[in-house]
């Protein structure tokens, strides 16, 4: 089973943003050593508890410290940027790191309205232009634009991916002949229907292109089921805190256990648990195999958020060992 990593460089209590970014780099090295296919980093803006605001910059740091694993954006939020500059950034990465570079694109704001305004005028208008922006980006990445090339032109083109959480994003990826990553961990939509629709309506952009799908899932794995649920509680309480407007750092397990929950909070946690895979290595492996059989996903991209960087690294190690080693 192909496994990959999505990381947001979350900041835990007592941790600096620099330490969070360094922990992400070490996680990429763990993925490199344990056979993970890709390491993607997210783009968020004006979030004090997420340190990854510029994937194209961060990926240079990651690529220079890994050897085999593919590196990419999960995702570059294309409505903020000129496609030509995005192509230049990722062509430069592909020139440095060869056939290891992915461009994942999305259209979410990735932050507050104030951050969107600070980044770009007319964000919503650019969202409506997304089909044209993607066509323009394809032309630059594939070097088919007759007017200008995005230099340096690498010997291996970056792979283009559409990321989304809805039927609309799957239909868009299929229409444009893009590879597709469905963020099940962020969506209430039925992943089976969405991936089936993507495959059914896929239009090849080239004679040798074919549909390929990744399912993004939230996973916490530990040596025992009980330990996994304890570790996952930090993330769950962090989500509850954010729903109350508290955008602080990820709480420790002890602080999470001490957090006073309202009945509404308890229901939120119960709903979030339903969208996660939490357990020991055997349980997690069985759940991922069942999900693959159900959805037909070609690959799983795992997002794991914990208080302790060591717990996060161990979680990914346990999953790889249970499935592939």
From TrEMBL:
GO CC terms in record: cytosol
GO molecular function: oxidoreductase activity, acting on paired donors, with incorporation or reduction of molecular oxygen
InterPro entries linked: Bact_Lucif_Oxidored, CmoO-like, Luciferase-like_dom, Luciferase-like_sf
Domain Luciferase-like: 1-294
Keyword set includes Transit peptide: no
Keywords: Oxidoreductase
Family annotation (Pfam families): Bac_luciferase
Family per record: To bacterial alkanal monooxygenase alpha and beta chains.
Name the record gives this protein: MsnO8 family LLM class oxidoreductase
Organism: Salinicoccus hispanicus
